[in-house]
């Protein structure tokens, strides 16, 4: 455990670079990088295995900066270790189109494992990354072939500790006994409001001990490199618990304002940087300087990581010979390829098949495809019997010591932790070789929305199986009945809404979600039974919207989603009796429909024919696809689902009456505005 002046110089290099970066951009957070520099230096120079020349090496150690506002620290480390983050990139910190944005973004900067910034999210992701290691190790490791044994290290601050998602994730990690997860808590006692004594005075170590974590405290994180090293070494020895190391640091260490909120989110003043550089042995007239000895130190460690990577590659080649089936599966999964012909397992239906709730149809899909897609890992936030997400021969992902399952298991009991579940799923997908799916009631995706939004931003392939998707859940009432939820989902960029109307569309929804390698998908599924529709299609579901029932000389187009498509069909029959010709369009995904060619969309929403949308949810957003909208713009009501539908007028005779009024109106007007040309040309 020898430390030299080169270690001190490297730590101080990080500190002055952070000050230079934030000063040049006049935006950012210098204090946390300066305070965290010693423990970051130790991880990247002594402990972590990484290879900048092969950033996605499967068994690399993962590093997550949950307090993502401190990203100057991570960008500096990427630069020093040899990732493609140049000195010019550091100088472009927080500038438009730079590789060093204001918070870490995994899809922008090579070497960033997960996108962080909203506090607590990265910590939740780290739990998913640790789950990924545990599952892949249990699935693929064999005697003499330890392919997966990496550690996940995460930094988090006081803000992360206060966010609810971190509590959910920590509780889950403790239960799952994730021994390869090591969290270093930057305990600097400062938040934007000032000293944390104004709002955050809990005993964090006792809290994490109660969660089932191994906990240590390092009182001097500013200079006690020996203490920090021993704590990390001890954490690595504990294999049946995740580890928390509480590290007392001084925010903005070396600044004239160290230890205060003044160095949290604002640049150091020029005179402060001058004295800082003098104190640390740097020329105050020089900016963005790295001593060659510091480069050499980190490049030496990176070279060792590259050697470990080469050894892993050799081991994997031998593994493929010794275990050809497993080797082929692992190679396919790491390359993000699906099993050939997997979609043949998807169920298909005819109108002769019985009416069934789409949550039940989803269960049928899972029972068919989980056997042919081993990378599909599924779970529920304590609603397994309602979400119907557990297939017949599923094994739970649990520590073997509990007797409840094992780490090779593919079914997750996430507990009542919707946000923690969603954050962990992002990490599971980021690990590689895993497609995670998690379930709750649609209304409660709102609890998880922070992680859902980051999945969309980052391009994680995660599947949200959301059941009980409308007033159709009935007696639980307005607290559980989503109204505005789908509008929020549809408004989120890159997030795909999928609200299937029957069995074929449910299979189609899974077809898209499984093949959507860089997009998260929300499957919105019913509690109540729905008929199998004439004209529905697995393949047409992928277009987002299609003509379910065409009629020549149409007077109106009825546009429905999910449970209301069959309502449109029944309403069309009543309208026909009144001499009104209604064509029916099923719109399982507005997002996918928007992405179709103009000509296709114009063939679905035809000019000259008024369109009326019907959905037992908010009408917000439907003006893009309909001239008039029938929906629910109040909260729901408690009662048997058929009574609730009738109460809100979501029944054929009421819908037909409203549609007739719309048809009469546009006939009187003498013209119908073109929807497709207005919004989609």
- CATH H-tier superfamily of the largest domain: Thiamin diphosphate (ThDP)-binding fold, Pyr/PP domains
Q: Strand percentage, roughly?
A: 5-15%
Compute the number of helices. 25
The biggest beta sheet is recorded as: 6 strands, parallel
Provide a concise account of the structure shown.
By secondary structure, the protein is α/β, with parallel strands linked by helices. It is elongated, with a radius of gyration of 28 Å. The termini are far apart.
Topology diagram in text:
Layout: H1 5-25, H2 31-47, E1 62-65, H3 71-81, H4 87-91, H5 121-140, E2 152-157, H6 158-162, H7 164-176, E3 181-187, E4 190-191, E5 194-195, H8 204-211, E6 214-218, H9 225-237, E7 243-248, H10 270-279, H11 292-322, H12 324-334, E8 356-357, H13 358-369, E9 376-380, H14 384-387, E10 411-413, H15 418-431, E11 435-441, H16 449-458, E12 463-467, H17 485-491, E13 496-498, H18 503-515, E14 521-524, E15 529-530, H19 538-541, E16 546-549, E17 556-560, H20 563-577, E18 582-586, H21 590-594, H22 598-604, E19 611-614, E20 628-630, H23 641-647, H24 652-669, H25 675-679
Parallel strand pairs: 1-2, 2-3, 3-7, 6-7, 9-10, 9-11, 11-12, 12-14, 13-14, 17-18, 17-19, 19-20
Antiparallel strand pairs: 4-5, 8-15, 16-18
Structure, explained:
The protein is 42% helix and 12% strand. It is an alpha/beta fold and 681 residues long. The strands form five sheets. Strands 10-9-11-12-14-13 form a six-stranded parallel β-sheet, sandwiched between helices. Helix 1 (5-25) packs across helix 2, helix 13 packs across helix 18 and helix 20 (563-577) packs across helix 24 (652-669). The longest helix is centred in the middle third of the chain and has 31 residues, at 292-322. It is elongated and about 90 Å long.
């Amino acid at each position: 455990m020898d430390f030299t002046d080169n270690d001190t110089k490297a730590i101080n290099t990080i500190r002055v670079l952070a000050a230079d970066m934030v000063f040049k951009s006049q935006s950012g957070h210098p204090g946390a990088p300066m305070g965290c520099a010693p423990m970051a230096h130790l991880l990247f120079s002594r402990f972590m295995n990484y290879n900048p020349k092969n950033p996605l090496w499967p068994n690399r150690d993962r590093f997550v900066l949950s307090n993502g506002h401190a990203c100057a620290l991570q960008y500096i480390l990427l630069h020093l270790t040899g990732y493609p983050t140049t000195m010019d990139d550091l100088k472009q910190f927080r500038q438009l189109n730079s590789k060093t944005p204001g918070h870490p973004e995994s899809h922008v900067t090579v070497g960033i494992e997960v996108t962080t910034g909203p506090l607590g999210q990265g910590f939740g992701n780290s739990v998913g990354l640790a789950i990924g290691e545990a599952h892949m190790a249990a699935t693929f490791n064999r005697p003499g072939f330890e392919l997966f044994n990496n550690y996940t290290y995460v930094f988090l601050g006081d803000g992360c500790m206060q966010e609810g998602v971190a509590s959910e994730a920590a509780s889950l990690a403790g239960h799952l006994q994730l021994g390869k997860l090591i969290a270093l808590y930057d305990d600097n006692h400062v938040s934007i409001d000032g000293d944390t004594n104004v709002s955050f005075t809990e005993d964090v170590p006792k809290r994490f001990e109660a969660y089932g974590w191994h906990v240590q405290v390092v009182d001097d994180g500013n200079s006690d490199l020996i203490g920090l090293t021993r704590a990390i070494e001890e954490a690595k020895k504990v294999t049946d618990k995740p580890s928390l190391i509480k590290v007392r640091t001084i925010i903005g260490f070396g600044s004239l304002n160290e230890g205060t909120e003044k160095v949290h989110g604002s640049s150091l003043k020029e005179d402060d940087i001058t004295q800082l550089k003098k104190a640390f042995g740097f020329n105050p007239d020089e900016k963005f300087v790295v001593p060659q000895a510091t480069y050499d130190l980190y490049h030496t460690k990176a070279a060792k990581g590259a050697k470990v990577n080469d050894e892993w590659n050799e081991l994997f080649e031998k593994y493929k010979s010794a275990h050809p089936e497993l080797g082929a599966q692992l190679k396919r999964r790491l390359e993000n390829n699906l099993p050939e012909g997997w979609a043949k397992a998807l169920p298909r239906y005819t109108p002769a098949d019985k009416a069934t709730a789409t949550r039940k149809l989803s269960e049928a899909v899972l029972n068919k495809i989980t056997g042919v897609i081993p990378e599909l890992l599924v779970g529920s936030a304590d609603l397994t019997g309602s979400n119907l997400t557990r297939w017949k021969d599923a094994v739970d992902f649990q520590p073997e010591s509990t007797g409840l399952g094992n780490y090779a298991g593919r079914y997750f009991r996430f507990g009542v932790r919707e946000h923690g579940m969603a954050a962990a799923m992002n990490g599971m997908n980021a690990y590689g070789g895993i497609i995670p799916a998690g379930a709750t009631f649609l209304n409660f995706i709102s609890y998880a929305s922070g992680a859902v939004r980051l999945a969309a931003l980052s391009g994680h392939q995660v599947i949200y199986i959301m059941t009980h998707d409308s007033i159709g859940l009935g007696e639980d009432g307005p607290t559980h009945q989503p109204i505005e939820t789908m509008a929020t989902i549809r408004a989120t960029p890159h997030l795909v809404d999928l609200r299937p109307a029957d069995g074929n569309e449910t299979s189609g929804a899974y077809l898209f979600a499984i093949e959507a390698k860089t997009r998260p998908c929300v499957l919105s599924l019913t509690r109540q039974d729905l008929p199998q529709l004439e004209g529905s299609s697995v393949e047409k579901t992928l277009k987002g919207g299609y003509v379910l029932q065409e009629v020549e000389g149409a007077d109106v187009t009825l546009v429905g989603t999910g449970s209301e498509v069959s309502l449109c069909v029944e309403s069309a029959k009543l309208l026909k009796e009144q001499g009104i010709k209604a064509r029916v369009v099923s719109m399982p995904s507005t997002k996918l429909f928007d992405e179709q060619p103009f000509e296709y969309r114009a063939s679905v929403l035809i000019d000259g024919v008024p369109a009326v949308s019907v959905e037992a949810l908010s009408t917000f957003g439907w003006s893009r696809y309909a001239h008039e909208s029938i929906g629910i713009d109040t909260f729901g009501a408690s009662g048997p689902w058929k009574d609730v539908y009738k109460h809100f007028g979501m029944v054929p005779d009421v819908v037909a009456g409203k549609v007739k009024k719309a048809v009469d109106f546009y006939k009187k007007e003498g013209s119908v505005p073109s929807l497709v040309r207005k919004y989609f040309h």
